């Protein structure tokens, strides 16, 4: 296995764990945690490809990761604001209990 | 992969598994912090110093704290057995695990069978912070502006969403 | 001779490292550096507790500790012995692991932050290219520690204190980073030794080219120090641990050695953040006037650090504690706009650096001062008129 | 202007700090066990019992009327009346205990005492390793001579003494005035008494 592949395996496993968490957990905050893990795995992929890719002197991988981090921050802020809003309305963060359209 | 990176990867994966599987929400958030720290360590090992510090600053300093705050502000009475919905024909969690496992398996197979890239092991010279800044300000300036706009919009949106409407009494007194 | 004295610490370290076999040398060097930092700032911590008690006492017309040793100088040792021999109590309902890990997580990042601060010429443990970012990144880890302490103790006072502390830390991190960014803008680098180098040389009347001697630098320094006071939970921003309201905030359930660790972490972060403030605005280890350059650089750094500590003690002896709403209003309605204005003024200063016509220096000064003073004036007027920072009106009392 | 008040406060504390090194008015604190400040005359800590003359037992002004015991808000006074062998009450306390761990120095006992027997002391160093027995003062600990009272509260003691002397003089005058008519009737009464039988 090349070093790149090792890092890719790690990021794949991280992505898998995040996906499993997002799909199986029924708490909205934990779903968000799973999504964060998937984003982190993607960032790890970017950095690994930049480091072991054909031209590591270009900054594309790093710049992409920085943007991804910024987007993740924005996404978390809005996501958690939504969760808190729904919680105020329904008194729950359990996803199965907020699936009706009627408020 | 040198031993330090191996340990960091193990910690990241262990933290991730704990973060999505523990029962206590606060423990989940703290395990997430462990994962973020370890991934920052992996970045550092890969030579991406700036990204590593940015990762710690944003993920640990902002996102983890946000998650912790949100989980404290939303005490979930979901454990209340009276409110749990009736049993379904298909339990959701084996399905979710199955899908996640399938996706991971396909990805792993792809990684294992790929021969696309040459084996680069030469020490890469990371672009300096100055070069990074110049790239951001020239080649990626549009993306940078868009991200700035996105962050501003997200911040305003989050504030508007989460702000509590003033109670009638407050409005009456005018505070 | 002067140069030898200046590099004395480096020379000693090289001699000590040379005693070891070659493969061990990097490890020995790293260990020596870490040990020197821990020993120096641990000693400074002991000295500062004594200085603080003495200074506060004098401000309050008292004498302060004077029983243990001459002038009470051995008081820190007595305090330390008391702390170490106290029983370590863990609440039965507490989350054992989190309760145990919190004090460690409080101290370790602070110690890591010391690795990027240049204490003297060539006297920096890690010359990172993104050193300033590293400093702020490890600083944000203390928020997690505070939260763990507050939540893990399973005590409503500590949880309240932790929530207050985190809200305050996050709010004041923004002006702190923004005022530091103004220096980064002018110096064009994130590396702390390079920022010190950007303040080299002497300008008008032999005065050094420190950033604090510019309009934006002065404003940035004041903002940085105010935000640093809040970041280190010191009076007047000490309401996360307000003794009179929530006993000691997140530290209620800690005793003995763990409490001492929190205490140590707080003082160490104070020194670290003062060190960064010195590096950013006060010229780091550089002498203020050219004819004092022969004094070893680390002595200059130490003198400036002690000066900063004295100012912090002075502030603590003067200001009453803020209320929670005043704290937030001050952060978001005064500190944040002012730090943005400072950033603009710094950009102006940077853009007009190429002016060469006669009287350009004066014009830059006037422009920069006007850019800062006018918004300051407007901001203070609007804030005081709208009663945001004035006395509170109670809903049912009027 | 914003911040001017803060600077004013800083200047004041700086003046305090510097002044504490050369200006005694800025450093009024004394080092306590070695040096003590003179207590103000109205200082009060816990009550004590005044006795006249030389004998603390017989000169005690207290008549065990128990008014102070009843009035004491935290009920820290305990009095037992002295009785002679026949059970006849004597105007003297057999037991007078005062628990200073309970006493709150309110001085109400002093206010209500009709005999000026109980007064406030200025001694404050009562620390003891025995928190039960050591803080329970008995009659022997509490009895202090009038001389001591004059020492600690000169004005108040002089006033009390003057009043007591005036009262005594009045009582004597009254007694004399009563004694005269009383002294007169026995003589006429003596005759009928002598005459009756």
Q: Please, could you describe this protein's structure?
A:
The complex is a heterotetramer of chains A (103), B (175), C (398) and D (197). By secondary structure, chain A is an all-alpha fold. In chain A, 76% of the residues lie in helices and 0% in strands. With 175 residues, chain B is mainly alpha-helical. In chain B, α1 (3-21) runs antiparallel to α2 and α2 runs antiparallel to α3 (49-73). Chain B is globular and about 65 Å long. The relative contact order of chain B is 0.05. The model of chain B is unreliable at 171-175 (pLDDT under 50). With 398 residues, chain C is an all-alpha fold. Chain C is built from 14 helices and no strands. Chain D is α+β, with helices and mostly antiparallel strands and 197 residues long. Chain D contains seven helices and six strands. Chain D is elongated. Chain D starts with a helix and ends with a helix. In chain D, 17% of the residues are buried. Chains in contact: A-B, B-C, C-D. Chains A and B meet through α1, α2 and α3 of A and α1, α2, α3, α4 and α5 of B.
Low-confidence stretches of chain D: 188-197
Strand content of chain D: 15-25%
Largest sheet of chain D: 3 strands, mixed
Mean pLDDT of chain A: 84
Tell me the overall shape of chain A.
Answer: elongated
Largest interface (C-beta under 8 Å): A-B, 76 and 85 residues
Uncertain segments of chain A are none
Radius of gyration of chain D: 27 Å
Mean pLDDT of chain D: 84
Which secondary-structure class do the elements of chain D indicate? alpha+beta
Q: Helix and strand layout, with pairings?
A:
The complex is a heterotetramer of chains A (103), B (175), C (398) and D (197).
Chain B (H helix, E strand, L loop, with lengths): L2 H19 L3 H21 L3 H25 L18 H22 L15 H10 L2 H22 L5 H6 L2
Helix pairs in contact in B: 1-2, 2-3
Chain C lengths: L1 H5 L1 H11 L6 H35 L15 H11 L10 H18 L17 H22 L3 H32 L4 H6 L17 H17 L11 H4 L9 H26 L15 H22 L5 H28 L8 H26 L13
Chain D lengths: L3 H19 L24 E5 L15 H5 L5 E7 L5 E11 L8 H5 L5 E3 L15 E2 L1 H4 E3 H7 L1 H30 L2 H10 L2
Parallel strand pairs in D: 1-6
Antiparallel strand pairs in D: 1-4, 2-3, 3-5
Question: Notable features of this structure?
Answer:
heterotetramer; B: 175 residues; D: 197 residues; alpha+beta; 3-stranded antiparallel sheet; disordered C terminus
């Amino acid at each position: 296995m090349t070093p790149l592949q090792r890092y890719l395996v790690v990021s794949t496993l991280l992505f898998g764990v995040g996906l499993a968490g997002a799909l199986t957990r029924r708490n909205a905050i934990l779903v968000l945690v799973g999504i964060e893990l998937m984003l982190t795995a993607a960032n790890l992929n970017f950095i690994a490809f930049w480091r072991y890719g054909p031209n590591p002197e270009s900054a594309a991988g790093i710049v992409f990761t920085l943007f991804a981090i910024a987007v993740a921050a924005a996404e978390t802020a809005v996501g958690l604001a939504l969760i808190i809003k729904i919680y105020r309305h329904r008194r729950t963060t359990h996803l199965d209990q907020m699936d009706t359209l009627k408020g | 992969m040198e031993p330090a990176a191996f340990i960091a990867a193990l910690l990241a994966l262990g933290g991730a598994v704990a973060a999505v599987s523990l029962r206590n929400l606060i423990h989940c958030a703290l395990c997430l912090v462990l994962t973020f720290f370890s991934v920052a360590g992996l970045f550092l090992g890969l030579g991406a110093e700036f990204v590593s510090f940015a990762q710690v600053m944003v993920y640990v300093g902002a996102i983890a704290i946000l998650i912790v705050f949100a989980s404290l502000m939303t005490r979930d009475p979901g454990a209340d057995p009276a409110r749990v919905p009736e049993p379904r024909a298909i339990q959701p969690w084996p399905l979710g695990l199955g899908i996640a496992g399938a996706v991971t398996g396909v990805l792993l197979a792809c990684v294992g069978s790929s021969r696309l890239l040459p084996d680069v092991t030469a020490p890469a010279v990371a672009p300096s912070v100055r070069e990074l800044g110049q790239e951001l300000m020239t080649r990626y300036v549009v993306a940078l502006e868009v991200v700035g706009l996105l962050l501003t919009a997200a911040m305003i949106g989050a504030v508007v969403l989460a702000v509590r409407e003033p109670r009638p009494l407050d409005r009456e007194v005018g505070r | 001779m002067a140069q030898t004295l200046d590099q004395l610490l480096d020379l000693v370290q090289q001699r000590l490292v040379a005693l070891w076999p070659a493969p061990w040398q990097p490890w020995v060097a790293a260990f020596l550096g870490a040990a020197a930092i821990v020993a120096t700032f641990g000693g400074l911590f002991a000295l500062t507790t004594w200085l603080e008690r003495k200074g506060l006492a004098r401000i309050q017309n008292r004498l302060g500790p004077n029983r243990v040793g001459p002038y009470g100088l051995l008081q820190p040792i007595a305090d330390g012995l008391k702390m170490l021999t106290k029983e370590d109590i863990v609440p039965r309902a507490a989350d054992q692991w989190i309760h145990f890990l919190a004090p460690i997580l409080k101290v370790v990042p602070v110690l890591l932050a010391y690795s990027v601060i240049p204490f003297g010429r060539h006297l920096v443990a890690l010359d990172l290219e993104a050193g300033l970012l590293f400093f702020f990144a490890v600083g944000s880890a203390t928020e997690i520690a505070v939260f763990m302490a507050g939540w893990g103790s399973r005590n409503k006072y500590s949880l309240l204190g932790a929530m207050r502390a985190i809200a305050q830390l996050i709010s004041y991190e923004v002006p702190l980073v923004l005022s530091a960014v103004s220096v980064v803008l002018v110096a064009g680098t994130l590396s702390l030794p390079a920022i010190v180098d950007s303040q080299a040389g002497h300008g008008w009347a032999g005065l050094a080219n420190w950033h604090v001697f510019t309009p934006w630098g002065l404003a940035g320094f004041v903002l940085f120090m105010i935000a640093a006071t809040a970041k280190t939970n010191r009076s007047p921003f000490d309401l996360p641990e307000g003794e009179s309201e929530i006993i000691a905030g997140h530290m209620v359930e800690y005793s003995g050695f763990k409490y001492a660790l929190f205490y140590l972490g707080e003082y160490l972060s104070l020194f670290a953040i003062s060190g960064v403030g010195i590096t950013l605005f006060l010229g780091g280890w550089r002498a203020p006037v050219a004819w004092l350059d022969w004094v070893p650089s680390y002595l200059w750094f130490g003198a400036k650090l002690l000066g900063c500590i004295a100012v912090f003690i002075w502030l603590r002896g003067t200001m009453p504690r803020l209320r929670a709403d005043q704290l937030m209003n001050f952060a978001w309605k005064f500190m944040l706009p002012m730090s943005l204005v400072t950033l603009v003024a710094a950009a102006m200063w940077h853009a007009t650096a190429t002016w060469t016509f006669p009287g350009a220096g004066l014009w830059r000064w006037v422009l920069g001062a006007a850019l800062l003073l006018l918004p300051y004036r407007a901001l203070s007027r609007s804030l005081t008129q709208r009663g945001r920072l004035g006395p509170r009106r109670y809903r049912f009392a009027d | 202007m914003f911040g001017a008040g803060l600077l004013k406060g800083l200047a004041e504390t700086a003046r305090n700090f510097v002044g504490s090194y050369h200006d005694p008015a800025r450093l009024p604190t004394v080092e306590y066990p070695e040096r003590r400040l003179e207590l103000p005359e109205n200082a009060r800590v816990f009550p004590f019992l005044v006795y006249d003359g030389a004998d603390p037992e017989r000169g005690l002004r207290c008549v065990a009327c128990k008014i102070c015991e009843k009035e004491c808000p935290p009920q820290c006074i305990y009095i037992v009346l002295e009785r002679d062998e026949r059970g006849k009450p004597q105007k003297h306390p057999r037991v007078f205990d005062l628990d200073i761990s309970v006493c709150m120095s309110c001085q109400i006992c002093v206010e209500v005492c009709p005999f000026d027997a109980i007064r406030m002391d200025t001694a404050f160093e009562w620390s003891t390793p025995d928190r039960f027995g050591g803080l329970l003062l008995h009659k022997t600990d509490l009895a202090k001579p009038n001389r001591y009272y004059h020492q600690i509260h000169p004005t108040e003691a002089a006033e009390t003494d003057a009043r007591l002397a005036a009262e005594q003089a009045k009582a004597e005058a009254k007694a004399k005035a009563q004694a005269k008519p009383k002294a007169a009737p026995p003589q006429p009464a003596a005759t009928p008494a002598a005459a009756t039988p």
